[in-house]
Amino acid sequence: MCQRPAWRRGDRSVSVRQDRELSLAELEAFGQELDSLRRRTLADLGEADARYIRRVRSVVRLCCWSGRALLMLGWFPPTWLLGTLLLGLGKILENMELGHNVMHGQYDWMNDPEFAGRHYEWDIVGPADFWRHTHNHVHHTYTNVLGMDDDVGYGVVRLFPEQRWKPFYRWQPLWVTLQALLFQYAVAIQHLRLDKLLKGRISVQEVRPLARQFGTKLMRQWGKDYLLFPLLALLLGANALAVLTGNLLANLLRNLWTFLVIFCGHFTEQAAVFPPEVLEGETRGHWYLRQLRGSSNLSGGPLLHILTGNLSHQIEHHLFPDLPARRYAELAREVRLICVRYGQHYNCGSLWAQFATVLRRIWIYRLPPAAMSDPQA
């Protein structure tokens, strides 16, 4: 059964969640209410949702191609900056609002091959098949379960007191900075399970086909951004270095933004983690409760929601990953009311307020437990 996180005495980094423990009857009713909300939304899906995702695809194409065209004009500051920003915006929208959501199967009901979750390939170095397994299956099944959900710290960051401390965590502000700058690579490498390889739990033969698949996608992405378009610039008499640098910066912007959104959705002050025992006999109500308690929302307007792929509604995404993300804002109003009825904390705050708590976790939990409880540490 999901329980309130067991914060340690002397832990200075987080405050205790204020959740009421639910009886088995309440848990069943809680799950039924959320199931009913999901069914009503599924029954209401239609042309407006299809139009929306097609518009998103068109905006992605417009941003990317207009950005690339402006970069062909060279280092002239207004056009180079605008071109880089437009290309970065297109990549962010493709990653967050288009690729991520389509790969969840949110638009499979359209029966349009271009929006088929099982076949979509996105514009980052990590193969979509990697993401469909590590994220869609593992993360969304075992959300915030220690030892089961690899997204808890991604193997290099200690963010909760329940995680066993290791010496290299002392330097985790550095590891997190590198992860943010290279986030698309970190996400791709996660699927290779190099930690298990180094510990002898899997063989080189098991990793080799995955590494080959990653290498193929990596070369394709590098070839497009760092070879094809710079060469095209040379053929057109444009500045290849300006094009290359613009592509590098656009990818960097996408990496940093994706990192920010994902960490703010999972590792804030009020996010909880759970022991593996929580999965024993887990009912639908238990599962919903775990998604709620392990997630964090971001308050803001429509632009923020679109730029985050509506992962600003991370609670609703974890509850209903296969519903079109554009519906999360309206779902959030009902989910919040359900939380009030059942005495559950609805974790929501501004982007920068939530990120501040993430940074605090990163800083505090770099220390071993003994040092954390020492007021002089």
Question: How would you describe this protein?
Answer:
- The protein has 377 residues and is an all-alpha fold.
- It has 15 helices and 2 strands.
- It has helices at 24-44, 47-71, 77-103, 128-141, 172-181, 183-190, 194-198, 204-235, 240-266, 284-293, 302-307, 314-319, 328-341, 351-364, 369-372, and strands at 297-299, 348-350.
- Strands 1-2 form a two-stranded parallel ribbon.
- α1 (24-44) crosses α10 (284-293), α8 (204-235) packs across α9 (240-266) and α9 (240-266) packs across α14.
- It is globular and about 70 Å long.
In a few lines, what is going on in this structure?
The chain has about 375 residues and is mainly α. Helix content is about 60%, strand content about 0%.
Query: Residue ranges: pLDDT <50 for 5 or more in a row?
Result: 1-15
Distance between the termini: 35 Å
Element order: H for helix, E for strand: HHHHHHHHHHEHHHEHH
Helix-and-strand structural type: mainly alpha
Q: How much helicity do the residues have?
A: 55-70%
The coarse overall form would be globular
Reported for the largest beta sheet, the result is: 2 strands, parallel
Approximately what portion of the residues adopt beta-strand conformation? under 5%
